[in-house]
Amino acid sequence: MTDTQIFSGAFAEPVFDAQAVFRTVMDCMARPGTIGTISAVAKPPQPLGAAAGAVALTLCDHDTPVWLTPQLAKSKLPGWLAFHTGATVTAEKQVARFAFVEKGGVVPGFDMFSQGTQEYPDRSTTLVIEVDGFDGGEPLALTGPGIRDEARIAPAGLPEAFVSLAQANRALFPRGIDLILVSGDEVVCLPRTTVIRNGEA
Amino acid sequence: MYVAVKGGEAAISNAHRLLADRRRGDRTLPAIGIEQIVAQLGLAVDRVMAEASLYDRALAALAIRQARGDMIEAIFILRAYRTTLPRFGYSVPVETAEMQVERRVSATYKDLPGGQLLGPTFDYTHRLLDPSLLRDEAVEEGLQRDGEIEPVMRVADILSSEGLVEDDGQLPEGHVPGDLTREPLEFPMERDLRLQALARGDEGFLLALGYSTQRGYARTHPFVGEVRIGEVEVELDMPELGFAVSLGRIQVTECQMIAQFKGSAKNPPQFTRGYGLVFGQSERKAMAMSLVDRALRAEEFGEDIVAPAQDEEFVISHADNVQATGFVEHLKLPHYVDFQAELDLVRRMRREYEERNREEPGEDTLEAAQ
Amino acid sequence: MNAVSTELATYNFAYLDEQTKRMIRRAILKAIAIPGYQVPFASREMPMPYGWGTGGVQVTAAILGPDDVLKVIDQGADDTTNAVSIRAFFKKVANMAVTTKTGEATIIQTRHRIPEEKLTAGQTLVYQVPIPEPLRFLEPRETETRKMHALEEYGLMHVKLYEDIARNGHIATTYAYPVKVEGRYVMDPSPTPKFDNPKMHMSEALQLFGAGREKRIYAVPPYTEVVSLDFEDHPFEIQTFDKPCALCGAENVYLDEVVLDDKGGRMFVCSDTDHCEDRRDHGHCGTMLAYDKETAR
User: What is the pTM assigned to this prediction?
Assistant: First the structure.
């Protein structure tokens, strides 16, 4: 096994690619449920996908401890993150500023991560979760800031208890975690303000 | 015809041109060199380095020249430059006990190991204008003591060996020293961040606050344990090498103020400390800083917080002269939209007031008639 | 003597280094996720003074890219000196397209006004904020105001507004009029006249607020409830003007008072210069212009 996986796979144009990815994520965070496309190419080590890798390159650095699933933690990803972003991996979910879950990985309970405090609700973890896609799954109805009436997505590959996890998270407001869902080169953000309901009804 | 004011761009560029012209001044005189500023206005350079938090004499001198001698402007220019510099690492704490002192005075002992060293001080000069400086007369070299400069023991360590002064401040275990230029400020803060804020703080502001403690606004019965000025080694830990390497030497001024403390249930009676450390030669700043540091430790010692110098949020929020000057001076920017809103309200209230008075001519008109 | 290098520094795209941009970007995302809450950030020293828009400049620098079109206004006008200066700064450090047309801009940095033209999805309005804490004038201590926000204790603010009414018959706050965002956080809208407050409510554009000296970033996402504080017996109302703009005839816009002479001569013209010019280009005409056209003949 060589370390080329660790030393390669970052943005070709770090300054402009990071800006483009950030703007996509910012727009998606401001408009929950909107599917954004990440055009900048990142190639993180398997099993992390491209969009999640791009988010990591854009937002992580030595000020942001990162939590990884066991699968990701034993991949080349920790070395790749350290080399390209300076971010260190932590086993403590409570201190992680970002957490990454690969496609099919087990999503820990949201309440195990930092939810911020009532005084500093911003000090909470942002979870980046890879899903199978944004249609074909359980339909979700989204309302809240950033959404005019209602937005609908049907992400496939989320844990079964997702709606109740999200509702419990919403109930903590202003505390709570924020979600960035990715699939391929697509991204959907679900900030803590978004009210997520089962969309079948 | 009414034409709205235009041409901001041309006005700005012309203003810059005029500023450059005034900065250069009389063209028949030679331009002042950076080297001259460093060599002959060294204390101005030191102040700019200290409050800009950037140790570089040449750049500080450049900033002073660019700012036409306006110190806060020079500090601002150097800070804005500092912000853009990448960080290569964090140095290990400087060891002031190892300082090669050029000046060292203690007010608490008549004589002590290493002696009292006056160094290049204004202290006993008579402040008479010196006509010889109107000319470029030859100046004698300073006298140098023979032999190696030995480190001299710190006065605080003398008291410390008797257990009569508190130990050097200790941070809570596992505490990583903060950096207020990298992290958002949060109150209450630990002493490390407070000292950093004070070290960057405005000399005049700290001087006034320190002075206020002497006049009874949080009196601490201070004695100058020691003021020392000299060079210390700056070292960087190299994890790859397993030891620290020297980056060079910098000049600093350190003040250890010894202050009173009666003792408490937990602590035996002992003296307490106020600490000041500043880049370059800046005794006034280091002393004022140590007074304010001590005053700000009121809560730690269970003292009543009754005076401005003890109020952490007040002191730290207002010590930064770059912030202060920006916000005070921003008042000259246009505010006419807000003023219009106020004008409109005052006119309306005035109208209502006059209507009320017309309806019920009473006391007001009587008073007006008198 | 160490010589000063002539090449002092080469600045990064949009001036800020990448680490700083990341830090600001993270703060912006959290700000969007908690509408109206002030996220502390490690504000940097900028090459312009604190109080002159350093917060807005840092936010703009952290979000802008090469495809953006930037508009900068101060008091609603594109040609006020500080707006000119900030625009020139971004032209220099990001080599980007700038405009005075509200409709063409993707990012609008503003001091004290919200453009009259309705902002649309895809636009971001960046406010320069001097004092981000709406409770600051009631309680100077950050430690206290932070608790008040945490506990949602906004009674003091209502008391203050009501005292105004008792004393003056009016709420005496005419600008920086406090709002409640999404029913939770009381927020300072920056010193815009209260005339502009309704524009913040359910805006299609993303609104970001940067306070450099006070080191805070906050946000109002699109389609978010922004309600000006008021009382049942004293509902919130905006300023009204007796006459339309003297240049373009616009009504229901915010007007600046211009002193014409030393004999009490006054005229009222649009504070939003782009809006005014656009209307005049489309043939709208106020009394002052009409008069000028007459006399010119």
Answer: 0.91
